[in-house]
Design a protein that fits this description.
The chain is α/β, with parallel strands linked by helices. The chain contains 13 helices and five strands. Strand 4, helix 10 and strand 5 form a beta-alpha-beta unit. Bound molecules: magnesium ion. Magnesium ion binds next to loops.
Length: about 325
């Protein structure tokens, strides 16, 4: 823990130094411009003099970069052998279980699967972000600029089409494809919405370049589409279940497996505990300490220090103290 704190402080410090250097350069330039202007012209009105000072308003302090709250999570996800191990372990377990899933025609992984599905061809449903594609590049970019997730920056990131594969995903899905399984990519990346670029084709190309199966067209790519009522994932799983027997599902978010309306921490736990025999056989959950519904069930729509306070309260810190700590203080 001590080392992690030191790293976090050092990073915050170096970021602050960087900002100070930039500010110093800007102020020096403004000063020089001002001096040259003063030497050749009469003194401008006071209002004009104060304008450059307003332009050089203080940059955000490093302590205000709330994206750094997830630094340990991003470093763990991106660099640790433990992260690689748990992803490989999950996908290898899924691969080893797949033959049994295919042989048992009463087997389904989807609560949306109803009626007689014993003769339907098999399918696997996977999420995309941080399930088959590693999006930590985006998290690193957010930490560097000190900004939270935004649709605009995310949409621009998707256009890069350069997310690497999550360890183990490719081997598992290629094995499944070799057994005649169709892979469906069910993601909350969005079909084109006004003001933003399309996310379906860039994602399809990203997946296809890496060798993921069923990516020669977008028929198996089911993204969020409000026009079709596809906000949450359950309607999309129901759509797939009409034509396929969903044998396994993989995701880094509980809602990649089951929707829980008006979720609370308790109802989320219950959804998991009540399907213990599905875990590691039909449902495969990958770790994501960076973001997810586990976080939003606590913070709701709050951000910044309000989100920090709610997180502190969620682990038992009394409200008044949580407020102090969330704003940079400590228990005294
Ligand atoms: Mg995901």
């Amino acid at each position: 823990m001590h080392n992690n704190h030191t790293i976090a402080l050092a990073l915050a410090h170096s970021t602050a130094l960087g900002i100070m250097t930039v500010m110093r350069t800007v102020l020096y330039s403004l000063l020089m411009v001002g001096l040259v202007a003063c030497a050749s012209k009469p003194a401008p009105p006071l209002e004009t003099v104060s304008a450059p000072q307003q332009a050089a308003a203080p940059a955000p302090r490093a302590a205000d970069n709330f994206q750094l709250d997830m630094l340990n999570a991003v470093v763990w996800s991106r660099t640790s052998a433990e992260s690689e191990a748990v992803h490989l372990q999950t996908y290898e377990t899924a691969r080893r279980t797949l033959d049994a899933a295919l042989a048992d025609r009463t087997w389904t992984a989807a609560t949306e699967q109803t009626g007689d599905f014993s003769r339907l061809p098999p399918a696997i449903v996977v999420d995309v972000d941080d399930t088959v594609l590693d999006t930590t590049d985006y998290m690193v970019e957010r930490a560097r600029v000190g900004d939270a997730f935004s649709k605009a920056s995310w949409n621009a990131y998707v256009q890069l089409e350069n997310a690497p594969p999550v360890p183990g995903a490719l081997k598992y899905l290629q094995y499944a494809a070799s057994k005649g399984v169709t892979v469906f990519y069910v993601s909350n990346r969005e079909v084109q919405v006004p003001g933003f670029k399309d996310e379906v084709e860039p994602t399809r190309r990203n997946l296809a370049k890496l060798g993921f199966p069923n990516t020669s067209d977008a028929k198996t790519i089911l993204f969020r589409d409000n026009a079709r009522g596809w906000k949450d994932k359950s309607p999309r799983r129901a759509e797939i279940a009409k034509t396929h027997r969903i044998v396994q599902m993989v995701g880094d978010n509980l809602y990649d497996l089951i929707d829980i309306p008006n979720a609370t921490r308790e109802s989320r736990d219950t959804a998991v505990e009540s399907r213990l025999d599905w875990l590691g056989t039909r449902w495969f959950v990958l770790p994501n300490p960076m973001y997810g519904s586990w976080e939003s069930v606590i913070t709701q729509s709050a951000s910044g220090s309000d989100a920090r306070r709610l997180k502190l309260e969620s682990i038992g810190v009394p409200s008044a103290l949580a407020d102090v700590i969330a704003n940079g203080g400590f228990e005294r």
